[in-house]
Amino acid sequence: MTEQISNGLPSHMPTLRVMPMPADANVHGDVFGGWIMSQVDIAGAIPAARRANGRVATIAVNSFLFKQPVFVGDLLSFYAEVVKVGNTSITVSVEVYAERNRLQASTVKVTEATLTYVATGDDRKPRQIPPLEDITTVG
Ligand SMILES: CCCCCCCCCCCCCCCC(=O)SCCNC(=O)CCNC(=O)[C@H](O)C(C)(C)COP(=O)(O)OP(=O)(O)OC[C@H]1O[C@@H](n2cnc3c(N)ncnc32)[C@H](O)[C@@H]1OP(=O)(O)O
């Protein structure tokens, strides 16, 4: 999905960056998969909400792959991209990279996921995705 640069991160700006803390890890020091999933959900919701021009709800986690463990103190970068737009739904791909052993500048892809969001109204019911030319959210 993404072009790499020399430090192992994609060349474009991440959607979200965050560092897990000790409370996010299990007794072995691995960060909980559920914590990673919640961050992925937030990262994926950002381009989905932009494309929907408003509120979205997650309807499905289509795929989720924990390729490598995440450790406390890793600097995580989330790259989220819309891959499909339906009548009321938007599917987003999210890739997560961890910068760890920061003195050695080691970067690994830790997670890949695909999620589907539904544009919803104030009544929490699905609404049509607006045409691109009507989008007012920036960035
Ligand atoms: C300025 C910049 C802005 C940035 C701003 C950022 C904001 C960033 C905030 C972060 C915030 C965190 C974001 C977390 C978001 C939550 O965590 S939301 C909480 C968890 N999710 C929920 O509680 C949702 C519960 N489900 C529901 O309420 C209802 O199912 C829904 C979502 C309203 C949909 O209603 P429904 O009647 O079930 O929908 P239905 O018409 O059957 O299907 C709707 C669409 O979903 C598709 N769909 C249905 N089932 C599936 C499935 N299994 N798989 C795939 N697609 C499916 C359908 O094909 C349809 O798509 P279209 O063909 O219309 O494109």
UniProtKB/TrEMBL annotation:
Ranges of residues in domain HotDog ACOT-type: 10-123
Q: Which CDD domains does this chain map to?
A: BFIT_BACH
Q: Give the UniProt keywords, A-Z.
A: Hydrolase
Q: Which InterPro entries match?
A: Cytosol_ACT, HOTDOG_ACOT, HotDog_dom_sf, Thioestr_dom
Hydrolase in keyword set: yes
Q: Which domain of life is it from?
A: Bacteria
- Enumerate the Pfam families for this protein: 4HBT
As for family, the record states: Belongs to the acyl coenzyme A hydrolase family.
Name of the protein this chain belongs to:
Acyl-CoA thioesterase
- In its UniProt entry, the species of origin is given as Undibacterium umbellatum
